[in-house]
């Protein structure tokens, strides 16, 4: 969980940067990843767990995630949506001009 090494896969990056028209300059990748790690550290435990299960464990089924967390599918999906929104708001086109 939090405090563990964070693995960021391509699907997660695609979801975070969805809607950006330009490719991100490779020289900015380290700063972006640091910003992302900082954002992940600010998520609640539930938000972090949902994202971890969804992206790291490839549990793409919100029903399964809900069962693990003792939530219904819609609650798990809402937690994921809120977490992604929190992360996405840190990455505006202006903030990526590093």
| Percent in helix | 55-70%
Strand content: under 5%
Mean pLDDT across the residues is: 79
Poorly predicted segments? none
Distance between the terminal alpha carbons, to the nearest Å?
Answer: 29 Å
What structural class do the secondary elements suggest?
mainly alpha
Following the backbone from N to C, one meets helices and strands in this order, namely HHHHH
General shape: elongated
Largest sheet: none
Please compute the radius of gyration using only Cα atoms: 14 Å
Describe this structure in words.
- The chain is an all-alpha fold and 98 residues long.
- 57% of the residues lie in helices and 0% in strands.
- The chain contains five helices and no strands.
- It has helices at residues 10-16, 29-41, 45-56, 62-69, 73-88.
- The longest helix is centred in the C-terminal third of the chain and has 16 residues, at 73-88.
- The chain is elongated, with a radius of gyration of 14 Å.
- The termini are far apart.
- The model has no long low-confidence stretch (mean pLDDT 79).
Task: Tell me briefly what this model is.
The chain has five helices and no strands. The chain has 98 residues and is mainly alpha-helical. It starts with 9 loop residues before the first helix and ends in a 10-residue tail after the last helix.
Q: Which secondary structure elements does this structure contain, and how are they paired or packed?
A:
Blueprint: H1 10-16, H2 29-41, H3 45-56, H4 62-69, H5 73-88
Helix pairs in contact: 3-5, 4-5
Spell out the key features of this protein:
mainly alpha; 98 residues; single chain; 5 helices
């Amino acid at each position: 969980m939090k405090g563990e090494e964070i693995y960021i896969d391509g699907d997660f990056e695609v979801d975070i940067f969805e809607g950006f028209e330009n490719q991100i300059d490779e020289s900015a990748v380290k700063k972006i990843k640091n910003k992302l790690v900082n954002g992940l550290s600010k998520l609640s435990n539930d938000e972090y767990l949902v994202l971890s299960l969804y992206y790291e464990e490839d549990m793409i089924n919100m029903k399964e995630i809900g069962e693990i967390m003792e939530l219904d599918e819609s609650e798990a999906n809402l937690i994921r949506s809120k977490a992604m929104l929190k992360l996405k708001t840190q990455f505006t086109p202006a903030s990526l001009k590093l």
